[in-house]
Amino acid sequence: MSGTIRQAMTPAITRLREHFDEIRPVLDAQERTAEGIEMLRTRLVKVRRIVNRLEEKANQWQDYIRGLPVNERQA
Questions:
Q1: Residue 75 in this model has a pLDDT that exceeds 70
Q2: 34 to 26, 27, 37, 67, 68: CA distances (angstroms)
Q3: CB–CB of 9/57 below 8 Å?
Q4: Residue 42's pLDDT is what?
Q5: What would the DSSP string read from start to end of 15-40?
Q6: First-to-final CA distance of the chain
Q7: What is the chain's percent helix, strand, coil content, to nearest 5?
Q8: Predicted TM-score of the model (pTM)
Q9: pLDDT digit string (tens) for 21-70?
């Protein structure tokens, strides 16, 4: 179960990194363009969704681990 939860997080983490790679040049640019700002707004919505999903999965994983007997919690 723990592995399944963590595996479900992997694609979300990958997408998050991809969004950061797309956002970084716009943030590093000397000048802001309307297109760049709009892209940042769009990506921000997507990043928030991904982070929320990751938080849900992390909480689910922590709950699972807490529910294990103490001697089974070590990996």
A1: no
A2: 11, 13, 5, 50, 51
A3: yes
A4: 97
A5: HHHHHHHHHHHHHH-SS--HHHHHHH
A6: 13
A7: 85, 0, 15
A8: 0.81
A9: 999 999 999 999 999 999 999 999 999 999 999 999 999 999 998 998 88
